[in-house]
């Protein structure tokens, strides 16, 4: 049985990445610099893993993950207090209802990693996205 899927995302700098995510309530669960840079950050039941990739160009990054939450609007309000812009890298997008049945927003970190955050909403046929 599979109990969880955990993204492993690139980070130009573990120090910068850890400081960025700390602003959103993540804490370091593990960190190593040798033999290869690696960090595990956690917030509640969510874990994000980061591996060192110093040559990463954030504008070229295609890495990302999706976080399902119970109250996307509350989390967005909380994370908006950090004061990120709505464009550029890093950024925090607005909450939107998407046609695939999710109410979500996007966070892009300093590495260019796209973290979508959302919760299922009712579809036009009265169905919801599978949880």
Characterization of this structure:
It is a single chain. The strands form 2 sheets. Strands 5, 6, 7, 8 and 9 form a 5-stranded mixed sheet that branches. β7 and β8 form a beta hairpin. The model has no long low-confidence stretch (mean pLDDT 93). This protein is mainly β and 131 residues long. It is built from 2 helices and 9 strands; from the N terminus they run βαββββαββββ. The protein has one domain (8-120): Roll (2,3-Dihydroxybiphenyl 1,2-Dioxygenase, domain 1), CATH 3.10.180.10. The relative contact order is 0.19.
Secondary-structure map with pairings?
Blueprint (H helix, E strand, L loop, with lengths): L7 E4 L2 H9 L4 E6 L5 E6 L2 E7 L11 E5 L3 H9 L10 E2 L3 E2 L4 E7 L5 E7 L11
Parallel strand pairs: 1-4, 5-9
Antiparallel strand pairs: 2-3, 3-4, 6-8, 7-8, 8-9
Features:
2,3-Dihydroxybiphenyl 1,2-Dioxygenase, domain 1; 2 helices; five-stranded mixed sheet; 131 residues; mainly beta; four-stranded mixed sheet
The CATH superfamily label reads 2,3-Dihydroxybiphenyl 1,2-Dioxygenase, domain 1
Uncertain spans, ≥5 residues at pLDDT below 50?
none
Supply the helix-strand structural class.
Answer: mainly beta
Strand content: 35-45%
The CATH first-level class comes to: Alpha Beta
CA-based gyration radius: 15 Å
In the CATH classification, which architecture applies?
A: Roll
